[in-house]
Every structure is written in C-alpha cells, then in structure tokens.
C-alpha cells in the first residue's frame, strides 16, 4: 500500500511542478521619477496591465513613480545592479553611457515639433537606440515625447541676456550645461524631487521643464513667470535591463516591444495635447506667460552643437543626418 502511494506521488510530481511553473508569475520593477498625475505614469500602468493580459499573467510589472526607487542616475545604475528591471529615463541620462543617443537634448537641435516627430520615426533614431543597446546590454525599446522645455523664474526671460548670471536648476546630466553655457546662466544641478523646495527657498532663481511637468510638479506655485523659450525638445527612453530581457522568451519579447511602443505613442500624444493648452491655463492661474523671440536663443546655441567641451558627443555625420530629416506633419 505504502509503495503504491509513493509511486503515485512520484508520478504526480512532474505534472504538479509543470502546472506550478505554467501558472508562475514573475514580478518586475519599473522605476521613474515622474508624478502619478503625469501621462508617463498613466501609460506605464496601462502597459503593465497589457503585459499581464497578453502574457497570460506570467509577467507582473509594478510601477514605482516619483523617485521611489531613486533619482535618474540611481535608476539608470539600477539596470545593471538588478535593483530595477525597467525605467523611463531622459535621453541625456542614457547618454552618460552612450553619448550619441542624447543628441536630441542639445538646445534647439530640432526646428520644431514636426522635426522631432520625424526623428522619432527615423532610421537614425533606431540606429542610436541599437547603439545604446550594444554599448550597455540594456534594451532601449521606445522614445516618448517629453515636451519642449521652458524657463520659469520670478522675472521675464525675453532674451538670452536676461539669463546671464541666473542660478538655473538643471537635471543632473552634463548635456544640460550646453544650454546654460549658451546663455551665460549658472547651472545648478538638483535632484528632481528637491526642485520645488529649492525654488521656494531661493536656492536657485529658476528652473526649466516642459509645461506638463511644471504643472504636475507645481513649480508655478513658487514662480511668477513662465517664459516659452522652448530651448530643448526633450524625450524619454523606455529601457528594459539586459538581465530581464534575457529571461523573456521570443513571444514575450515581441509583446513587451509592442506594448511599450504603444504606451509611448499614447503618452506622446497626450503630452503634445497638454502643452498646447497649458499656456492659457498658466495665465488663468495669474502667471505671466512670456513669448520670447527664439531666434536669438537659437543663434547662441547653434555654435555649441558639435563642441565636445560643451557636451557634444556624436559624430558629425549623425548630426548632419538629423538636421537633414524633413519635418513630419502630425
């Protein structure tokens, strides 16, 4: 009797193990520094749900917003350390390990939104993302529009000279210094989560970010003027760590790619819609919205585009290809 029980258990064990494995769920951590009321977070949650559904529940993605797992340098390092599986990150931060991918962060690199939109769908961008992947072994899968960056301060910014000597908070990525150098401002790198307090206490005179971010982070509460300099057309990469990517089978890799690109498209469209509407909203909040002539700002920045001492780190051939991309409507 005992022998029959043991044999039956032995025969049942492989089937039970297979069933357990089939129903197993692996949890992944997706980190970013943005607020829960921003489109990036909403679309990350959407993507997490889509991944769960489309993989039959095998992969469960938990999203950690608002620097919960660290600032941008920390979460970028976390890809290699295994503390995060996926991140949103500004291309300037990704450029710390593969400079060419950050080319779009140079001030006035794009003529307008349509130029950026065409670049976002270009062979050049695909090559740059592939180069990042080869360099780091992490997989850059999508580029999301972050918006045109504008300056907030307690005074109007109408000309480059208005920024001379100004203490301007910039992100903790070297390429952002190209803009401050072009206008003579004093760059003050401060972690994203600490910017509001720095503005409130007067540690810095101003900061620069896209309008949806300024609204979400409530920077307008402690600044009187929003100057539409549009000096950087910013974007975010969605990156999956190499270690995590290697754990996916081919079908799941295709699912992750498809879902993350869909999420990127959805977030990009929402950011574009918001930034077109927000100048009027800031005015309704009693803020002064300044619309400077950008030609002087652009003229100050263009000579630095290929200056390595100013932060450039891309071949001239790639720069020329980017500038030659025809604008895409929509």
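Sequence proposed for the structure above (330 residues):
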């Amino acid at each position: 009797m005992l022998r029959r029980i043991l044999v039956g258990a032995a025969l049942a064990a492989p089937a039970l193990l297979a069933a357990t494995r089939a129903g197993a769920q692996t949890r992944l951590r997706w980190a970013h520094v943005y607020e829960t009321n921003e489109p990036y977070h909403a679309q990350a949650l959407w993507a997490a749900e889509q991944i769960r559904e489309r993989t039959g529940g095998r992969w469960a993605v938990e999203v950690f917003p608002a620097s919960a797992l660290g600032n941008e340098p920390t979460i970028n390092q976390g890809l290699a350390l295994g503390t995060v599986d996926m991140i949103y990150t500004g291309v300037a931060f990704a450029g710390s390990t593969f400079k060419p991918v950050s080319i779009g962060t140079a001030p006035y690199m794009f003529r307008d939104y349509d130029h950026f939109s065409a670049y976002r769908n270009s062979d050049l961008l695909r090559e740059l993302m592939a180069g990042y992947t080869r360099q780091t072994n992490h997989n850059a899968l999508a580029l999301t529009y972050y918006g045109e960056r504008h300056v907030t301060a307690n005074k109007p910014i109408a000309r480059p000279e208005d920024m001379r000597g100004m203490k301007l908070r910039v992100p903790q990525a070297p390429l952002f210094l190209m803009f401050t150098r072009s206008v003579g401002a004093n760059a003050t790198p401060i972690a994203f989560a600490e910017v509001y307090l720095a503005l409130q206490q007067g540690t810095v005179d101003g900061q620069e970010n896209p309008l949806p971010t300024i609204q979400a982070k409530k920077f307008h509460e402690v600044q009187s003027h929003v100057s539409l300099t549009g000096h950087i057309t910013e974007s975010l990469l969605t990156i999956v760590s190499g270690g995590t990517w290697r754990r996916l089978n081919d079908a799941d890799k295709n699912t992750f790619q498809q879902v993350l690109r869909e999420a990127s498209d959805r977030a990009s469209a929402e950011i574009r819609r918001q930034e077109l509407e927000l100048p009027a909203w800031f005015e309704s909040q009693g803020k002064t919205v300044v619309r400077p002539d950008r030609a002087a700002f652009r003229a100050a920045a263009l000579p630095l585009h290929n200056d390595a001492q100013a932060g450039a780190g891309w071949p001239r051939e790639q720069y020329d290809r980017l500038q030659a991309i025809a604008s895409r409507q929509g």
